């Protein structure tokens, strides 16, 4: 694979699904990592996460997400802040989100070309807002902190997958010593 250049700089290829509209109602499993997987958010003590100052900011900023975007009907489900990453299940669209969960795998099989334009009411905009609020707090308060570029997402396709991912997030602190992001 050759790397593309934009304005004489190498660009990071998107890991988003090109056949999915990330503004459509659905549930997503997201993972956001810190730069170089540094343990900025705290530490695991007795299989429980003990949050640092910046870890607490991440916790409260995530909880504010639905109130910052009331028109999207955002639903926060299970989430977990780990020493060097953040996992969450997020959905939006109210009742439409539940129906979309059952039909996501069918929709993904069809060519639903993503239209790039103003990125304001979609998953990327939510993640950008979350990441920037924490980075801004760290900068204002002279706290050493940085995010890894981008984030990972997974479109949750059905109820079985949803339950499996939810258990994974709940058990993340207990499985910290086996975590590949460790």
Description:
This protein is of the alpha+beta class and 182 residues long. The protein has a single domain, classed as Transposase IS200-like (Alpha-Beta Plaits, 2-Layer Sandwich). The chain has 4 helices and 8 strands, in the order E-E-E-E-E-H-E-E-H-H-E-H. It has helices at residues 53-68, 95-109, 123-140, 159-171; strands at 5-6, 9-10, 27-33, 42-45, 48-51, 75-81, 85-91, 152-155. Helix 1 crosses helix 3 (123-140). The longest helix has 18 residues, at 123-140.
Would you summarize the structure shown here?
The protein has about 180 residues and is of the alpha+beta class.
Mean pLDDT: 82
Unreliable segments of 5+ consecutive residues = 95-103, 105-114
Output the radius of gyration.
17 Å
How many individual β-strands?
Answer: 8
CATH class: Alpha Beta
SSE diagram, text form:
Layout: E1 5-6, E2 9-10, E3 27-33, E4 42-45, E5 48-51, H1 53-68, E6 75-81, E7 85-91, H2 95-109, H3 123-140, E8 152-155, H4 159-171
Antiparallel strand pairs: 1-2, 3-7, 3-8, 4-5, 6-7
Helix pairs in contact: 1-3
């Amino acid at each position: 694979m050759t790397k593309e250049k934009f304005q004489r700089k190498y660009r990071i290829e998107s890991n988003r699904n090109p056949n999915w509209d990330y503004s459509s109602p659905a549930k997503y499993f997201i993972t956001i990592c810190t730069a170089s997987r540094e343990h900025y958010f705290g530490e695991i003590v007795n299989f429980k996460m003990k949050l640092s100052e910046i870890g607490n900011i991440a916790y409260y900023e995530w909880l504010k997400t639905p109130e910052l975007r009331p028109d999207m009907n955002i639903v926060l489900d299970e989430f977990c802040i780990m020493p060097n990453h953040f996992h969450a299940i997020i959905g939006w669209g109210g009742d439409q989100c539940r129906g979309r969960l059952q039909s996501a795998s069918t929709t993904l099989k069809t060519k639903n070309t993503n239209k790039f334009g103003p990125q304001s009411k979609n998953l990327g905009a939510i993640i950008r807002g979350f990441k920037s609020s924490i980075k801004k707090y760290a900068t204002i308060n002279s706290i050493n902190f940085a995010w890894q570029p981008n984030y990972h997402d997974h479109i949750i396709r059905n109820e079985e997958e949803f339950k499996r991912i939810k258990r994974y997030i709940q058990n993340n602190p207990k499985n910290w010593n086996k975590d590949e992001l460790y």
